[in-house]
Specification:
The complex is a heterodimer. Chain A is built from 9 helices and 12 strands. By secondary structure, chain A is an alpha+beta fold. A 6-stranded antiparallel beta sheet of chain B has the order 1-6-2-3-4-5, with no helix packed on it. Chain B has a 5-stranded antiparallel beta sheet with strand order 9-8-7-10-11. Chain B is an all-beta fold. The chains are: A alpha+beta, B mainly beta.
Chain lengths: 303, 187
């Protein structure tokens, strides 16, 4: 790891390539194994609010999470991947239906320690990438990033508790309209402890099963990463998948088959934590870009 | 039938029996949560605007809008009358709905009229029109005041800046979107 600033041309493709190279350096230096799992999958993670993109009879992965956890179960304690993910119908100033994700998984740590490693990665990038980059946290690199719970944010800005908001089907609106605009304005902020029902593939909090050990990182109101203490209980995970599959079916979306191979390997994963971070959004934030379109090589509105 | 994922800037939809145009659109989706399709909508009849958030399962219909070529007949007070040259149907549009277009309408001009059912919403003019100058200060050759334009009035009453050599009775071409002078038209 060197303090020397890398000189990147102003061109966004160069900056993108430099940043991705530095991400690799960070993980390889820490003994992580870079993995490369298939984009085309016979099944996909059943998540009620993610519409999978199909290709023939298979799915284009919405994230590499299932494949990477299967590798974790095979006994590799630290793995990372930079790959393409696909989500049908997601298009906006911060969304592309095909985008680049960084995911990493590590055994023997929980979500709190993972927040720390995420912060280290992003500070490393700010200190090792110079010309052409404007990381918002570069000038205050010694300051620790704040952490706050979902419940605290709803208390401060939301008018309702998270549970009330979920009951009234207003959780997303309150989050997007009232809370997110305040998040990560001076320093990036970790938001953690989501209601269990939004736990996805996260472990429930020991001692409080109304909460899931899930966190999100926000910078300037934009969600950059999502992490968990991983749920490694296949019975519980199957129940959650069944609920999510039902949500998809009710919307008329085919959830595909239950990911049985993944469930079969899940119980052999030791305690672990994992995180997904949007590379295109990181490039937006670190290069001062306004839309995600500016962060990628090209965009086709036809897909 | 449209669903929320079809929403984008410029889309024209019908809500509660009235046509709306999407003037702003933002897709947002908090991690693991439902997608929100935030729009700003303008009522195409009244011009009133408001914000509305759609969810992915919301459905709505395309605004039944039709564009027909019509001829401008005459104006009476605030009402402007147009006729469909094929069906001879006549409709009226208010000056308020026409906005700045009234500056460029002359008798018998052909325009595209946007209709919602039988109701006219607005017109699209040709991108430029030729109008006669009805009032202009004479051009004094050798004027050394240094001004490179002067105001003139055209037949519709519209006043614009033109080069100093334009004289009363001449025809000039005007850009209907910017309202600016383009060129002098020789007969």
């Amino acid at each position: 790891m060197s303090d020397e600033a890398v000189i990147c041309s102003e061109n966004i493709l160069w900056r993108r390539a430099c940043l991705i190279q530095k991400v690799r350096d960070f993980f390889i230096d820490r003994g992580y194994l870079e993995v490369d799992t298939p984009l085309l999958q016979p099944f996909c993670i059943p998540e009620g609010h993610i519409e999978p993109a199909k290709s023939g009879d298979c799915f284009l992965q919405p994230s590499p999470e299932l494949a990477m956890k299967t590798i974790l179960a095979d006994g590799h304690p630290r793995i990372f991947q930079i790959c393409r993910c696909f989500r049908a119908g997601e298009r906006g100033g911060h969304h592309l239906p095909e985008f680049t994700m960084l995911e990493w998984y590590r055994t023997s740590i929980d979500y709190r320690e993972l927040m720390g490693e995420c912060e280290e990665l992003l500070k490393f990038l700010a200190s090792s990438l110079g010309e052409g980059f404007s990381f918002p946290w570069k000038e205050s690199i010694e300051k620790q990033w704040p952490r706050t719970t979902v419940a605290e944010l709803f208390r401060e800005y939301g008018l309702l508790t998270p549970e009330e908001a979920l009951r009234e089907d207003l959780f997303e609106e309150i989050l997007v309209d009232r809370i997110e605009p305040h998040l990560g304005l001076s320093l990036p902020v970790f938001v953690y402890d989501y209601p269990a029902v939004l736990g996805s593939l996260a472990r429930l909090k020991p001692g409080d099963d109304s909460l899931a050990e899930r966190f999100e990182l926000y910078v300037n109101g934009l969600e950059l990463a999502n992490g968990f203490s991983e749920l490694v209980d296949s019975r519980e995970q199957r129940l959650r998948f069944e609920k999510e599959r039902q949500i998809l079916q009710d919307k008329g979306i085919n959830p595909g088959p239950m990911p049985e191979d993944f469930l079969a390997s899940l119980d052999s994963i030791p305690p672990a934590a994992g995180i997904a971070l949007g590379i295109d959004r990181l490039i937006m934030i670190s290069c001062g870009l306004v839309t995600i379109d500016e962060a990628v090589a090209m965009v086709s509105e036809a897909c | 039938m449209y669903s929320a994922s079809d929403l984008k800037k410029g889309l024209k939809i019908e809500l509660d029996g009235e046509p709306y145009i999407v003037t702003d659109f933002e897709f947002s989706k908090p991690g693991k949560g439902q997608a929100l399709y935030k729009t700003r909508l303008k009522n195409m009849l009244t011009g009133n605007a408001f914000e509305k958030t759609f969810r992915s399962n919301d459905k709505f219909v395309k605004a039944p809008l039709e564009e027909r070529t019509m001829q401008f007949l005459y104006s009476q007070g605030e009402d402007y009358f147009f006729m469909d040259n094929k069906t001879f149907d006549q409709i009226s549009i208010t000056a308020e709905q026409l906005g700045e277009n009234t500056n460029f309408l002359t008798d018998n001009m052909e325009v595209d009229v946007l209709l919602f059912g039988e109701q006219a919403i607005g017109v699209t003019l040709p991108s430029s029109v030729t109008l006669t100058v009805t009032k202009a200060d004479p051009w004094v050759k050798g004027d050394t005041s240094g001004s490179d334009s002067k105001p003139v009035t055209v037949e519709t009453g519209y006043v614009l800046q033109v080069p100093p050599f334009i004289e009363e009775g001449e025809k000039i071409q005007i850009d209907t979107r910017s309202g600016a002078y383009i060129t002098r038209v020789k007969e």
